[in-house]
Amino acid sequence: MSDDPSIEPYVGPAGGWGSLKSVEGILARENRLAAGNALLLKQNKHDGFSCVSCAWEKPAQPAVFEYCENGAKATAWEITSKRVPPEFFAGHTLAELRGWTDHALEAEGRLTHPMRWDKASDTYRPVAWEDAYREIGAELRKLDPESVIFYASGRAALETSYMWQLFARLYGNNNLPDSSNMCHESTSVALPESIGIPVGTVTLEDFEQTDAIFFFGQNVGTNSPRMLHPLQEASKRGVPIVTFNPLRERGLERFTNPQSPVEMLTGKETRISSEYHQLRAGGDIAAVLGLCKALVMADDAGAKVLDHAFIQQHTHGFADFQDYARKSDWAEIERESGLTRAALESAARVYAAADGVVLVYGMGITQHRRGVEAVQMLVNLLLLRGNIGKAGAGICPVRGHSNVQGQRTVGITEKPELAPLDKLDQQYGFKSPRKLGRNTVETCEGIIDGSVRGFLGLGGNFIRAVPETEAMEEAWPRLRLSVQIATKLNRNHLIPGEVTFLLPCLGRTEIDEQRNGPQLVSIEDSNGQIHPSRGVAKPAGPHLRSEPAIIAELAKATLPDSGKVPWDDWVADYARIRDAVAESLPESFHDYNARLRKPGGFPRARAARERIWKTKTGKANFIVPAGLVADPDAPALGPDVLRLMTIRSNDQFNTTIYGYDDRFRGVNGTRRVLFIGRNDMVRLGLSDGQTVRLTTAVQDGRTRSVGSMRVVAYDVPDGCCAAYYPECNPLIPLWHHAERAKVPAAKSVPVRITPDAGAA
Ligand SMILES: Nc1nc2c(c(=O)[nH]1)N[C@H]1C(S)=C(S)[C@@H](COP(=O)(O)OP(=O)(O)OC[C@H]3O[C@@H](n4cnc5c(=O)[nH]c(N)nc54)[C@H](O)[C@@H]3O)O[C@H]1N2
Ligand SMILES: Nc1nc2c(c(=O)[nH]1)N[C@H]1C(S)=C(S)[C@@H](COP(=O)(O)OP(=O)(O)OC[C@H]3O[C@@H](n4cnc5c(=O)[nH]c(N)nc54)[C@H](O)[C@@H]3O)O[C@H]1N2
Ligand SMILES: [Mo]
């Protein structure tokens, strides 16, 4: 953090010179300017590596520079010349390191050696790989399989993920929570009920053909900047882009392509959104109902805006939904959405005038108590005009981690019915467990109540990403076993269980040399496209192992009798893992190795694209929401309670904090800020620059608060405020999550704001 933070409005577009300057600055900081620039040319190329940042689709014909500012940051962060060797750990106890910031920890560089925590000295000490495997295996054999968790962050490749889920099931559980449990699980619950598949239905071509784009709760300029290119193209074609977001995000306003010499020279900007609706946090169900109501009413009046032929042939539940829309009350819609009827009718007109509409959404939709219903409401809107399963139309959940969608596809899920368990039993000659496993929230509950005894983390920073930070940090040391496979040091590594190992692995940018030569892996992107990724950088150290190699050795050490799995052959040649995946999941992965060689890769199966509806009714379903408010408790909370959205800055990847600037929001040198509207500031007697404390406004016997937050007057709708994740995670109660999906409701945390007298 800087001693002299500043907050000034940023006048530039997304992209532009700011972005270019930022990339070079980052490479220089990591001492990888020359090598880094060369490496970036291989990013998102068929013969190169798939970006480790976001999950946005990689085009089959990539541009020369097929990367963005934040993708470049992620690469630079991984290929840094800095290292965290055993000597570093010898000089710092974990107690001391717990006082470091998230930024300082990861900025130390790459982990280099397998380490075991030594309780007496409270330091990590180097351990031989063989000893680590043997000891972890012995610990796992002693534990009750149901008490152990196999967490995966969303970065591990399809091959790795397949091995991970198989290891968990051979060991004896379905405890496979992953980051999607905090992210798009609302999508994974909602879409199968609505349209029969758990993923989106669009491809990049649909963006080329669409007539309108509706954009909900996703911050494209920061979190999936490569998507700005199709948006820019669409905007240039005159396609309206209608945005619903409480905050005016720069990437959704205007963009200069940093890789176009002409645009850079002339300073030419493209406007992105044609209409920008600053709704209240959690107001989306109401806003979309407003759109639907306007359409239904126009149709009732004879305007023929609904696609009755599609509705008749392909959908179920229309009559009820139509009735619900007709009867809904504009006053309530206006109050909950924070938007006027006129604004919603205007957006509805744009929607009705377009033949094909693509609807994009992100965490602003999924991370609410009624996140599942919000997703289903978006589908309702699309169904009214047959906007699924035709060119230029469809639903586009923008996934987060680069392979988070793929992890689910190959069986990382706590829900046994979603994994090919019968197939696994047949292939590997065992009886896989059929009991429902633990998702992320249930894992946290188990850690707090002591029923979870062991935690294996395949990447990620679980303890920092989950809610209820204080109780989680207090409970973690009671775990018997804590094993983290990671590239960089983070807070979770500093909170040990009784037996604790930190295992360093190769990153995706690095050459993965195995017995049969250098290996490639594969990734499924947000639009369901599966493509290869081949590391090109020299590994960060000679002692690193690949994730597949680590999983294989852990599995062998834990389950000496898992003879039917050819772990060693798989590690020697990852193509053999792909053969096994193809056998387990032939619909999406038949001829896996052959199809992977094609530029652009191949698409996974998505029946809804063909208007085949694998739902219980055999049709696409209109689903009436249970209520219009994102947080069912909110109405009772009173006027001094605001809805806090926890959001990302432009200088972070989840819990990885690259730096303290959020360029597009004009914040420099700090992350401890609270964005709040002028009306609420006046109402609550707050002044710009004042230091405040946030306290969660729920009564469940626990006090949750975060102090030292600087008030920033910002364009935020009344009754809402925003601050950064993960700093605000201590405020989120564990039970405050999406109903059914259990995604923590990180975008509507009820908080009170009070002056924080003691702080600077
Ligand atoms: N550089 C970078 N890239 C990333 C990540 C990163 O941290 N850094 N994270 C990756 C991951 S794992 C994910 S899941 C994605 C996350 O990408 P996003 O889905 O963009 O997630 P957030 O940054 O949390 O921002 C959510 C957006 O929703 C808006 N919003 C908040 N509440 C509401 C609401 O109630 N309604 C509506 N309509 N909008 C709302 C916020 O103002 C913000 O613009 O990005 C991925 N890509
Ligand atoms: N309040 C609030 N909380 C949130 C969110 C929010 O918007 N608000 N967003 C949620 C979302 S969408 C997500 S996805 C989660 C993210 O939760 P996680 O996925 O658990 O967290 P990350 O910060 O992505 O994990 C970063 C760590 O991964 C490790 N790592 C990086 N690359 C590799 C690799 O190649 N292999 C291995 N083995 N390790 C690697 C590094 O050690 C790094 O420190 O957080 C969730 N939490
Ligand atoms: Mo995510």
From TrEMBL:
<keyword id="KW-0411">Iron-sulfur</keyword>
<keyword id="KW-0479">Metal-binding</keyword>
<dbReference type="InterPro" id="IPR009010">
    <property type="entry name" value="Asp_de-COase-like_dom_sf"/>
</dbReference>
<keyword id="KW-0560">Oxidoreductase</keyword>
<keyword id="KW-0004">4Fe-4S</keyword>
<dbReference type="Pfam" id="PF00384">
    <property type="entry name" value="Molybdopterin"/>
</dbReference>
<dbReference type="InterPro" id="IPR037951">
    <property type="entry name" value="MopB_CT_YdeP"/>
</dbReference>
<keyword id="KW-0408">Iron</keyword>
<feature type="domain" description="Molybdopterin oxidoreductase">
    <location>
        <begin position="110"/>
        <end position="406"/>
    </location>
</feature>
<protein>
    <submittedName>
        <fullName>FdhF/YdeP family oxidoreductase</fullName>
    </submittedName>
</protein>
<dbReference type="InterPro" id="IPR041953">
    <property type="entry name" value="YdeP_MopB"/>
</dbReference>
<comment type="similarity">
    <text>Belongs to the prokaryotic molybdopterin-containing oxidoreductase family.</text>
</comment>
<dbReference type="InterPro" id="IPR010046">
    <property type="entry name" value="Mopterin_OxRdtse_a_bac"/>
</dbReference>
<dbReference type="InterPro" id="IPR050123">
    <property type="entry name" value="Prok_molybdopt-oxidoreductase"/>
</dbReference>
<dbReference type="InterPro" id="IPR006656">
    <property type="entry name" value="Mopterin_OxRdtase"/>
</dbReference>
<keyword id="KW-0500">Molybdenum</keyword>
